[in-house]
Amino acid sequence: MKATRRESTRRRHARVRRRVKGSAERPRLAIFRSNQHIYAQVIDDTEHKTLVSASTLDKEADLKTGSTAEAAATVGKLIAERSLANDISQVVFDRGGKLYHGRVAALADAAREAGLKF
């Protein structure tokens, strides 16, 4: 039986999460991409706490639509600025089971350009 797209994403995410763990020194930058928005969180997995978050729904993002690569790049820049303000400069990237392409890649590239290392 062929797996659905959602099931394939879930399997990829489980495979990535087996290897990617966030710590206090290098927290995990987790991405969630829906059809209309994109969300990013910097998570310390040892404490089970979200340290920083950003999304296309934030007032600071000031976006008309959240489903474009430009919107994702804005969120990437925003998450990097907030992380650096909280003394977080290195993270491990968790693409959330999504392919590293399009909005996910745009967010990651913008975060790197804004000074986040991963």
From TrEMBL:
Residues 1-23 are annotated as: Disordered. It comes from the Bacteria. GO terms for molecular function: 5S rRNA binding; structural constituent of ribosome. It holds the Pfam family Ribosomal_L18p. Keywords: Ribonucleoprotein, Ribosomal protein, RNA-binding, rRNA-binding. InterPro entries: Ribosomal_L18, Ribosomal_uL18_bac-type, Ribosomal_uL18_bac/plant/anim. CDD domains: Ribosomal_L18_L5e. GO terms for cellular component: cytosolic large ribosomal subunit. Part of the 50S ribosomal subunit; part of the 5S rRNA/L5/L18/L25 subcomplex. Contacts the 5S and 23S rRNAs. PANTHER family: 39S RIBOSOMAL PROTEIN L18, MITOCHONDRIAL, LARGE RIBOSOMAL SUBUNIT PROTEIN UL18M. This is Large ribosomal subunit protein uL18. It comes from Phormidesmis priestleyi Ana. The lineage of its organism: Bacteria, Bacillati, Cyanobacteriota, Cyanophyceae, Leptolyngbyales. The gene is rplR.
